[in-house]
Each structure stands twice: as structure tokens, then as C-alpha cells.
Amino acid sequence: MCGIVAYLGERQAYPILMKGLKRLEYRGYDSAGVAILDGEMLLYKVKGKVAELVASIGKKKTSGTVGMAHTRWATHGEPNEINAHPHYSPTHNLAIIHNGIIENYVALKKELLKRGYIFQSETDTEVLIHLIEDIKLNERVDLVNAVQIALKQVIGAYAIVVISKDDPDILVAARKSSPLVIGIGKKEFFVASDAAPIIEHTSDVVYLNDEEIAIIQKNKPLKIKTISDIERTPYIEKLELNLSKIEKSGFEHFMLKEIFEQPHSIRDSMRGRLKINEGIVALGGILDYEQKLINARRILIVACGTSWHAGLVGEYLIEELARIPVEVEYASEFRYRKPVINEEDVVIAISQSGETADTLAAIELAKSKGATIIGICNVVGSSIARATHAGSYTHAGPEIGVASTKAFTAQVTILVMLALRLAYKRGTLPMSQFYQLLNELDGIPEKVEKTLLLNDKIKKLAEIFKDSTNALYLGRGYNFPVALEGALKLKEISYIHAEGYPAAEMKHGPIALIDENMPVVVLATNKTIYDKVVTNIQEVKARKGIIIAIVNEGDKTIGEMADYSIEVPETEEIFTPLISTIPLQLFSYHMAVLRGCNVDQPRNLAKSVTVE
Ligand code: G6P
């Protein structure tokens, strides 16, 4: 949420910053801005996307080898040019970019107003830069000290970069609860919200920890201190990302590319974990804490958005296979509702980005009560990955499209393997069934590949339904979370109101919405409650609803009952979410494209929600 990029070195900063900002645009895109030092401070900002910033700057002066840029997802103050970052200090000597929320900004602002300061914007960020300058001038301290003193007064989350016209050879960066990574090149440094803008320049990076400040200077090694002035030795890590992974590779949108990557991303999630020849499944990253899971009194899964839907699949899987009680919680509710947690509980936190503020806070709460925390994250080195006791990376590769696709199937794949492992260890599954499930799991990437061949058919379906204003998604059992996820995908990127419901619950409300204009997507690949799903379809048909059914290959019964049907490869019931979610992703994608929506950057959304 909000993208930050900064550069200090010997090259022109502007092109590096703009390219970097483009790579961060998935984090927010309602306004953008840049500041560059070149004797003077050049500062430009616009309401809108990075392309609009570049267009508005045009041929204006952009020279300079030190600078920073920002793409915003508004929290305080509407998206407009004034509220866009960077923000000036009162004398215009300093400027700041910020990701996060200064929670006590109202109190700080009141103090500063009393002292006669005037604010241009409605943002919490402007308050912080005023405070930094106030300290710098009144306490006669240098920039680094002023930032340290100011941040000690701040409650909330921040990733910031500050530059100064008077100190043109220094960048000061700091973080707390919002990510920040520093790239170290030859005689140059990069600062960014994540590795995407850095990877093409260097693979040597340092991840800042909470309350650390990076002091980045020309021709000097990187220095890191805490806000309490304790020196820290920078720990340089190697990035394992490659550039092709963050480019569209010929696809029209990142989302489509990521949907089509799923046979590979699911395989990558299983690599080294599912050893089919040895009849073993094991998640190396959690082996040290496996016993805790095996003996858990209960497992709590905390997550947000699509990751929460994967968590629901996890509940079904772990309870059915390993017979451990599971509860799935929205992280934002869990952290504030005074939950009962104790040392025998294991909390599984699921997050693609590893930066979601509510999930991070839920982890801290559970940790403080003595629970063991296991992470399922996609982004290596992310805050959640570092805050957990142990975990499994999903290894889905960078997900850039705001609507999550391959991260979901990768999360489900990890949960499938975890449930199977726990079942094996707890002896809750007959071995013959265990081996049969391992074999079936091994074949899932091929079945996903086959499902993707339905793309053209689904596009045609989208052409029929592109003008719908509502849609209902129904599923039972393992297909219930898929119905929720399908509805979320449609809402997110095509702005069509959609609801996901357990098929049988429809009678308790949503059935009132059904008429001849209501498309009802029914996930009907379940074997165990097939007849019940047939009944639910009849209930919709009796009210003239239009049925789009996702069925197993060769299913003539529902196939003939439905107005439209999509046949997907059949699999074991516990793996159905890995298959049945694919046509729904494609359907939302084509609906959104046909409606002229910006698929990769839907309005009001951000990929990584680092605010509460
Ligand atoms: C945002 C994204 C969703 C994502 C959710 C949770 O809302 O747009 O795609 O599912 O955050 O994010 P996480 O990174 O924790 O999985």
C-alpha cells in the first residue's frame, strides 16, 4: 500500500525512479510524485498514475543523482495533487515520502499548529515532515538526529525516505511495520517498498527492521542505526528474483499471465516437499515446529481477503484429514475481539504479500499469548515471514496483478500438503488412501493446464454476461470457499456486485434476488453431495435464474440442467478448489476486460494492505 522508491548514486535519478515507481504501482495508484535534488529541490506530483506524472513533467528539469518517488493509495485525505507525496517541510528544505499511518498525527498536528505552522495537505505525512524540521531547527541537530527524535514521538506505521536541500548527498530512510528494502550497487543505493524496482540494478539487499534508520551517503558504506541511536551492522542478503518474473512476458495483463502460470506455480509450491517416489510429503520450513502442530489443541488460521478464502479451504482439509479442530478468522476481527488463545494453540497466518497490517497485528497478539505461529507467505523476507516462528513459502513467484490468483492456488497447495502431513503423522488416514492422494496431488498441475484450455470458451461466456449487474456464486463443501473467491474476483476487477454463498444457505435470503436477469454460477464438481447440489440448481431454475455450472468432465445430469456448463477435469474432492477456481478466475478476467476495466489496477484497491 503506497510504493516508495529512492536513489542515490552517480546516474540520473529520474529515469530510475520512474521505472521503479511503475514496478510498484500495484501497491497503489491514485496519485504519484517525485523529488530530485540538483542544487535546488525539484518536486512534481499529480493526481493519477505514474504515466500521468511522467506526461505532466514532460520536458521539465529532472536532472540530479539523488531523489525519491511515491505512488499513493490514499488513507488521510482524498487522492489529489496536494495530498500526493512527496511533502515539503515548512521551509521547503526537506521533503518526505511515506507509506503507513501516523496514528497520533492529530495530536502532533495540534502542537505544531499552536506553534504557528501551516499545513497544505490533509495528510499525516506532512505532519511528520513538519515535526522533523521543527526538531532540526529548534534543537539544532542534524537530519539523522531530527528523524530519530521525531520518530520516537510517532505512534503508528511508517516506511519513509527524507531528503534535504542543505544535505544533498544523503538519503535518510526508516521503517516500522511497513516494508523497506535497500539495494546496494556499485557507488549507488536504492530504497524501495519491495525488491521489484531494485532487481534490475543489484541483487545485494538489506531489509530494514522495525525502528531502524538507514543513513545512505555518497561514497560511504551504508550505515544503520535504531531510532534510539544504537548502531546495527547491515546484513546483506542476495535476492533470488529474476526480472522476467516481474514482466508481462507477452500477456496483455499481469493477471492473465499469473492465471496461466498456475501449472508451474503449483508445481513450484510442491517442489522438494512432495516426494512421490518415496511416498513422503513434508514442509521443511516447519519441521522444527511440527510436533506443536501435531499436538495442537486447535489451529487458528488468520488472514485477509483471498488468503482468508484459502484459510477456509485449510479448515476443511485439516479437520477432514488430520482431525484437529480449526477456526478461521479475519485477522482484523481476531485482533480486536479479545480471543481466547493459549500455548497449545497453533496460529497459521496466510498472506501473499507478508505485509498485511491486520494479519501482522493478529500474529503479534497470538504470540504475546504464547501460541506458536506458522506463516504461509509468498514474499520471501516479508514482515510476516519474519514475525512467525516457522513457515512455508508458497514459491508462487511475484504476483503483480492486484486480484490474487496464483497466490491462492499456491496457498491451497501448501495447506493440502500440511493437512496430508499432519494426517500421516497423526495416523488419521489409511496409508493406502494417503498414497493415492499423494499421487493425485502430483497430477494436479497437468489438470490445471487442461483447465486453462477452456479459456476461449469462458471468454465467450463472458461476452454473454458482460452487462450483468449482479451475480451469485454457489458452492458446497470444498467448493464453498471457491464460491466466495469467485465472487470476490468478479467484484474486484469488473465492479459487478457478486455474492458467494453456501448453496444450501441460498434459501435463507439470496433466493429472493433470483430472477431471469440473475446469473448464478454453481460449483458442482463435488461427488459427495452431488444430489444436494442438483436440488439447489433446481431451486434456482424454478425461479428463472440463469445457471452457469462448473461440472466434472462428462457430467450430463447437471450439464443438461444448466443454461451453460463448463466441464473441468475431475479430481479428488479435497483438491477441487485447485481446479474449480481456475474457470472463475478466467471468467472475471474476461468480464473485466470486456467492460473496459483496468484489470491489473482496479479502482480503490491495493495489492499490499499495510494499513489497518
Ligand atoms: C488485498 C489484496 C488481496 C489480498 C488481501 C490480503 O486486499 O488486494 O488480493 O488477498 O489484500 O493480502 P495478503 O498479502 O495478506 O494475502
Summarize this entry quickly.
By secondary structure, the protein is an alpha/beta fold.
Topology of this structure?
Layout: E1 3-8, H1 13-24, E2 31-38, E3 40-47, H2 50-57, E4 66-72, E5 87-88, E6 94-99, H3 105-114, H4 124-138, H5 143-152, E7 158-164, E8 170-176, E9 181-184, E10 189-192, E11 204-207, E12 212-217, E13 223-226, E14 231-232, E15 237-238, H6 254-260, H7 262-270, E16 274-275, E17 280-281, H8 290-294, E18 298-303, H9 305-322, E19 326-330, H10 331-334, E20 345-351, H11 357-368, E21 372-377, H12 383-387, E22 390-393, H13 406-426, H14 431-442, H15 444-452, H16 455-465, E23 470-475, H17 479-494, E24 497-502, E25 519-524, H18 530-541, E26 546-552, H19 556-561, E27 564-568, H20 576-594
Parallel strand pairs: 18-19, 18-20, 20-21, 21-22, 23-24, 23-25, 25-26, 26-27
Antiparallel strand pairs: 1-4, 1-10, 2-3, 2-4, 5-6, 6-7, 7-8, 8-12, 9-10, 9-11, 11-15, 12-13, 13-14, 16-17
The structure holds 6-O-phosphono-alpha-D-glucopyranose.
The site of 6-O-phosphono-alpha-D-glucopyranose (G6P) has 15 residues, from helix 9.
